[in-house]
Amino acid sequence: MSLEIGQAAPEFELLANDSEKVKLSDFRGKYVVVYFYPKDMTPGCTTQACDFRDNHASFEELDAVILGISPDPIERHQKFIDKHDLPFMLLVDDEHKVAEAYDVWKLKKMFGREYMGIERSTFLIDKEGKLMQEWRKVRVKGHVEEALDYLKENV
């Protein structure tokens, strides 16, 4: 399934690190930054999460909520949040249904081995629930600032 800028973002309901169910539609009236990442506690994912943490107040000032999504279980998400003092929710997509809906569940290769996993991607959803921008195959360095700059320029 391909997503198009301006169309409704795929709705989802997932468990958050605090065991509460969270729906995308819970955030209507706010901008939502949904970022998909492969795995808690890995170097790239930690850098990305900490970059979102360090810029969290700037996103909040623009009326934006940050949601991180990976296949990790609740307990691992909570350890990740506690260890790095993350001020936003991490959601559990253990069956990768949301990753598939956003077309970020991909065949990956590492050290000659093929496996299915998350392709690091970020989606900006507007206050009406429509896809405003997407970044696929994200490189961690500078990405959070790029997303923040885009939001500043377009709200």
Care to describe what's here?
The chain is α+β, with helices and mostly antiparallel strands and 155 residues long. The protein has helices spanning 43-54, 56-61, 74-84, 97-101, 143-154; strands spanning 13-16, 21-23, 31-36, 64-70, 89-92, 105-110, 113-118, 121-125, 131-135. β1 and β2 form a beta hairpin. The relative contact order is 0.23.
Q: Which stretches of 5+ consecutive residues score pLDDT under 50?
A: none
Spatial separation of the terminal alpha carbons:
28 Å
Number of helices: 5
The class by helix and strand makeup works out as: alpha+beta
Percent helix among the residues? 25-40%
Radius of gyration, in angstroms, nearest whole number: 14 Å
Oligomer: single chain
**Largest sheet composition:** 7 strands, mixed
Beta fraction: 25-35%
Instruction: Count every beta strand, where a strand is a DSSP E run of 2 or more residues.
Output: 9
The helix/strand series, from N terminus to C terminus, equals EEEHHEHEHEEEEH
Strand order of the largest sheet: 2-1-5-4-3-8-9
Morphology? globular
Mean pLDDT: 95
Helix-strand blueprint:
Blueprint: E1 13-16, E2 21-23, E3 31-36, H1 43-54, H2 56-61, E4 64-70, H3 74-84, E5 89-92, H4 97-101, E6 105-110, E7 113-118, E8 121-125, E9 131-135, H5 143-154
Parallel strand pairs: 3-4, 4-5
Antiparallel strand pairs: 1-2, 1-5, 3-8, 6-7, 8-9
Kindly summarize this structure in a few lines.
The protein has 5 helices and 9 strands; from the N terminus they run E-E-E-H-H-E-H-E-H-E-E-E-E-H.
